[in-house]
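Entry 14: structure prediction run for Glycosyl hydrolase. Input pasted below.
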Amino acid sequence: MMKFLYILCSLASCYAALNNKKFPADFMFGAATSSYQIEGAWNEDGKGENIWDYLLHTNRTYSLNGDNGDITCNSYHNYKEDVALLKNLNVTHYRFSIAWARLLPNGHINEINEAGVEYYKNLISELRANNIEPFVTIYHWDLPQALQDEGGWPSSNIIDVYADYARLCFRLFGLDVKYWMTFNEPKQTCWQGYGVGTNAPGIKSPGIGEYWCAHNVLKAHAKAWHIYDEEFRPRQKGQVGIVIDSNWWEPATNSSEDQEASETKLQFTFGLYANPIFNGDYPEVMKSHIKRRSLAQGFQKSRLPEFTPKEIEYIKGTADFLGVNMYSASLVAAKQNQDVDGMGFDHDDEVKVWYSESWKKGASPWLVVTPWGMQKLLRWIKNQYNNPRMIVTENGYSDYDGTLNDDDRISYIQGYLSGVRDAMVEDGVNVFGYTVWSLLDNLEWVYGFTNKFGLYHVDFNSPNRTRTAKKSVGFYQNVIRTKCLVDECIEI
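Run finished. Output tokens:
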């Protein structure tokens, strides 16, 4: 029996009610991972080096304890066990990513690694045999190092190279894959990878490299969508979307300045990628802020590249569905003392961001428990982009020890799922599924193995990386079985 009561609080109100409306019978419940975080076998069977391999091998201080993805969960060798765990959960779908360098060791189409092809074909076949829908992310942060050496995402050459890679994925796996995601969290790829440099490839080019990266990612996404639409959709009949992440940005006060700060932050985080795809072109507030600041800093034009009218039309409408990654909320206010010389995403928005000390924190420094933010973000997306067809592609809770009695994770998932259902029932948001992060404890990027997100505990000291179900497995199984978050639900 589910006897959980989660107190959902915002600055303005507090309420103690989990949604008691059943999820629709066809609502999809799944789990997610990514290739670098779980596969291991970093240099086996012809796989090439990616930017995370290179960064964490050449700079052991970049991640906590020098942890890397050389072995991690060893899913390259244990994929059948992973699928058995998914079957045990009774999920409808599994979201995973293809390692670009496992398929194309040098990143280019001229050298295809047949062992990599076989691995993903076997994984997809195993999922299909167990009635689990593959949700495939084409790019989840792990660019082949050879392509980074050629300039990486800020270089326009990457657009056609990515398009070749995407076409290959569609050709090889498309008959068995109906849901494709071109990019996972491009904001993190560009801002953390080429702006502040906290993620691979670790390049610091705030306000310039990060925006060129975003510009090229959007063009690459659109090109992949058009390739699928024109060359593969008639036969394969699948869908292509993108995954965008954001916090909910809660105004610190009811003042018009803080309300405006919230909207600006949403546009700089979510709108940067969603607006060109759903509405056409970058958000106006981004264009005006960055141009004004660029000119004041002595540039001749905006540091944010411009799309041509033809490019705007080419990108607009290139998503059959929208993946949303959401974990936390933040407080925002207008910055009172602007750094006029500051460049980059976190200066150009001119918004102050912080967490309330009263909010419960997870192990990850960016994760706070604010389930009320889920409904607010989904409602904002609905209103901003004409209620696109959405799926929550990541949401989950981290702790430090990977405890099997993970009541905090249960409460987190339950509260956020309640927010999803509230958005559907109260706001009419078009959400067709939810995907918990993560199936397994895994390598949490620069935080190494110190942040545990898994429904299943992984013993990273055991030779075969033994998996053990946590308490949250039983909880999630019950939600999937009953389509209900409380003891008794109402069908609508």
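Notes: Residues 1-16 have pLDDT under 50 and may be disordered. Will compare against the previous run tomorrow.
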